[in-house]
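REVIEWER CHECKLIST
Item 1: Sequence provided? yes
Item 2: Single chain? yes
Item 3: Sequence as submitted:
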Amino acid sequence: MTNKLTVFLPFNGNEFTLHVVEELKKSRLVENIFLLSPKGLKISPPDCKTLFIDSLFSLKTLKLISKNTNTDLILFIIKEVLIELCPNALERFISVIRDTNAGIIFSDFYETKSGVREAHPLIDYHLGSLRDDFDFGTMLFVQSEALSKSLGNENYYYLYAGLYNSRLLISENYCIIRIQEFLYEVFENDLRYSAEKHFDYVDPKNREVQIEMEAAVTGHLKRIGAYLTPEFDLLDSDESDFEYEASVIIPVKDRAKTISDAVESVLKQKTNFPFNLIVVDNHSKDGTSNILNNYAVKNKDIIHLLTDSDYLEIGGCWNEAITNKKCGRYCIQLDSDDIYYNDNILQEVIDLFRKEKLAMIIGSYKITDFYLKDQPPGIVAHKEWTPENGRNNALRINGLGAPRAFYTPLIRKIKFPNVSYGEDYAVCLAISRNYQIGRIYDPIYICRRWDGNSDVSLSIEKQNLYNAYKDRLRANEILTRQRLNRTKNNTNF
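Item 4: Structure as written out by the authors:
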C-alpha cells in the first residue's frame, strides 16, 4: 500500500473550502484533490479538478470518486466546513490504515463553535453501529479497493444512501477503526441543540431519504443473516384476572413544575373500562412527592409508589410498576413532563390492543414548548415503521416513537433494563423479534420541550454514552437474530 492520497471534498463556492484545499496541497502525501460541486456552479478554483455531482452521498458520486482515484487511499471530507489539520495528522491516518488494513478510518477531533474550542470524541464502530447517522466526524479515510468492491454489484440507485450502503458493505469485509486521538479541528456552523438535531430524520421532507436508508440496511441484514421475515408469533392469551384493564405508568423524579399537568391529563380520560395511574416516585426532593401524595389520598385509583432502592433508573422504575399487583392488563407510558392529546387516548389504545391482539403499541406525539406552543418538527409519527419491515428498520434508527403501551403479561416476562436512556428501545427490539407491534400515527400525547428536560442540550460525552449503549443493544440483537435464523433454517451460518 502506497502513502499517497486522493482527496475529495464538497465545494459550494465557500471561501473557507479553498483554504482547506490550499492546506492539503502543501502535503507531499496528497496526489490529487477533487472538488465535488453541484451542477451549474461557475466558480472554478485554480489547480483543482471539479466533479459535478447530483448529491454528495449518492451512488453515482461514489462511483465518480472510485473512477477518479489512482491511489490506494481516499480522503473523503463529508461536510463543507473549515478544517485545520493537527501536525502529522495525515501521516497518522495513513499509518493506521496501512498497518491494520482497515476499510475505513476516522478519528476524534476538536470542534470550535462561536469561538469556543472543545474536544469532540467519537465512539467505536462495531457490529451494532447500524445507525445511518453514526458520527464519523468530518474526515473519512477509505481504502480505494474497499470502496470499489462495495460498488461492484449494486443495482439499486441511491441518491441519498450511497455512502451509507457502501460503508455497510465495507463493514462486512473490512474492519472500520476509530483512532482515539484528536487529529483535526472543525469550525462548526450548525449551532442547534442536540434535541433539535435528533428529530431531523423524521422531518416529512426527508421521507425519500428514509426509504433509501431502509433499503440499504435491509440488504445488509439479509447478507449477514440477521433479517427477519414478516412472520409473527401469535400472542399467548392470558386469562388472569386484572382489577384494572389498563394502567398509565409515570416514572418521576423532581418534576414539581409538570407532574400535576400529567396527572390531570390522565384523570380526564374517558373509558368504558376501569383504569388507574401508577406513579413511581424515584426519591424526588423538590416537592413532587407531596403533590403526588395529595392526589393519592383523594383518589384510590392513583397509586403513588415510593422506591426503596437507591439504584433505580427509569427502566427499574418501570419494573416496579409492571410487577405491582395493581398494574392493569395493559400498561401505557406517560412521561412526567407531558400530557395526553385529548381525553379519549386510553380508549383508543385499548381498543386497538383488543382488535388486533397486539403485544405492544407505539403512538405518535406533537412537540411543543412548556406553554404548549408548537415547536419543530411538529408531529413526530415515525412513519418509517411499517408492519412488514419495521422490526428490521428498527436496527437503523435511534428510536421507535412514543408513547409506548404494552401487554402486561408479556412485558412482565421481558422487563426493562435498569437504565434511563434506551430502556424503551431495548424492550421494543425484544418484542419485535417475535411479535407484531401496532402503530397509531395520529398524535396521542404532547411532548413538552423545556429547560428542565434531560435531553434538551446534551454534552458530547452524554450523547456518546447514549449512542454507544444503543449500538450495543443493536449488536446483541443482531447476534440474537442470527442465532434464531440459524435455528429456523437449520444452517451453520
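Item 5: Key structural point noted by reviewer: Residues 246-481 form a domain with the Spore Coat Polysaccharide Biosynthesis Protein SpsA; Chain A fold (CATH 3.90.550.10).
Item 6: Recommendation: ____
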